[in-house]
Design a protein that fits this description.
single chain; about 190 residues; alpha+beta; Lipocalin; ten-stranded antiparallel sheet
């Protein structure tokens, strides 16, 4: 019995030590570029996939053959759909399509059913994970058109210039997006202002 405890402890400790990843010089450089991009506060995320939280009503609607082939009620391609989240200085501007359920107390804005904001966020926080080569950004922001709606947004950025975003709403079901990250160059900045 005593030897079994030693063997189990050894296996667990050796398993933990092998999980520490070492990065090549090139991987480290790519991660540093990502850190610099985030620090510049001059970038944009364009989503290509929406992943709504499923409720019974939404599942029934989306599974009724309203979606194009290849889409499911939990994974919807939004390639070609106007959407972006742009961080420029202290202001964050975004428009993302919304698929989900409206809860009571919501105030639907006329002609605007998406997630829309253009403001200086509250509680903006950037966390660098050097061990995993990830950058996490979180903030709270109010909807541009719906006065009573607020969002908690969490974004994970990867060195491959891809992103994963989670949007929690005060009046609607949550939704997630995956997309691509890019630097805003001078033409992009002027066109989007």
């Amino acid at each position: 019995m005593k030897y079994a405890v030693y063997i189990i402890t050894f296996v667990l400790l050796s398993g933990c030590s092998s999980s520490i990843k070492t990065y090549t010089e090139q991987e480290q450089k790519v991660y540093e570029n990502l850190q610099n991009l985030v620090a510049s506060k001059n970038f944009e995320i364009v989503a290509h996939t929406a992943m709504p939280m499923m409720g019974n009503a939404l599942a029934q609607v989306l599974n009724s053959n309203l979606l194009p082939p290849g889409n499911t009620s939990s994974r919807i391609s939004i390639i070609g759909t106007a959407n972006s989240l742009r961080i420029k200085g202290d202001t964050i501007k975004g428009y993302l399509p919304f698929y989900g359920e409206q809860f009571s107390g919501g105030n639907p804005a006329r002609n605007n059913h998406g997630i829309s904001f253009n403001d200086v966020p509250e509680d903006y926080k950037v966390t660098m994970s050097d061990a995993k080569h990830l950058v996490d950004i979180s903030f709270k922001i109010k909807d541009e058109y719906r006065g009573n709606e607020r969002y908690d947004i969490n974004i994970t950025l990867f060195p491959s210039n891809t992103s994963f975003m989670s949007v929690q709403s005060s009046t609607r079901s949550s939704i997630q997006f995956s997309g691509n990250l890019k630097t805003l160059n001078t033409e992009d900045r002027e066109a989007k202002e």
